[in-house]
Amino acid sequence: MDVGCGLGTTARRLAARGYAVTACDFSARAIEEAHRRTPTGSPVRYEVRDVTGPAPVGPYPVVLDRGVLHTRPTDHERHAFAAATARTCGPGGLWVHAGAAALSEEDALDQSGGPSWITEETFRDAVAPWFAALDLRIAGFGRQPGVTDWPARYAVLRRSRS
Fold first, then answer.
1. Rounded to an integer, what distance in angstroms lies between the CA atom of residue 32 and that of residue 16?
2. What is the pTM of this model?
3. Average pLDDT, whole number, for the chain?
4. For 46-55, which contacts have Cβ atoms below 8 Å and span 24 or more sequence positions?
5. Cα torsion at 25, 28, 34, 40 (round to 10°)?
């Protein structure tokens, strides 16, 4: 499940590598454009869906979040997204996350340059009730100066069995 798939770029790349992908976004316009950009016969299935909504989704063995958690600016919103991701991937499932990372509290307070950057402590607090980190690292998000050249957190998390 590619959560917050936008125009479907990542979903199409995964499908080209042999994965069957369900991709969702709460924007009907984004999903319409993703459909338009996806070749006929591709194994990507698109859905207009907000995974934090009341309708159950999944379970899927793997949930990909590329740039969604960091759009949740409050602790409450991050916890709600992590809980929804836990429901989506189910017990034992994996959450693969890539999002903006704050390297210090000062970075976390300065949101003028892009998405809601969160510290490792804030990230761990949001995911801890449901997930354990298997791999957690910081690297560059992109190379476009002033647009995507911020630090990113890459994480692979396993959903607890309970």
1. 20
2. 0.86
3. 87
4. 46/5, 46/8, 46/11, 46/22, 47/22, 47/23, 48/24, 49/24, 49/25, 50/26, 51/3, 51/24, 51/81, 51/84, 51/85, 51/87, 51/88, 52/80, 52/81, 52/84
5. 110
CB atoms within 10 A of CB 136: 16
Percent of the chain with pLDDT over 90: 57
Q: Which residues pair with 66 in a beta bridge?
A: 98
* Contact criterion met (CB below 8 Å) for 85 and 51: yes
Beta strands in the chain (DSSP E): 2-3, 21-25, 44-48, 62-66, 94-100, 131-140, 151-159
Q: Which amino acid would we find at residue 153?
A: R
Place of tokens 């709600």: 80
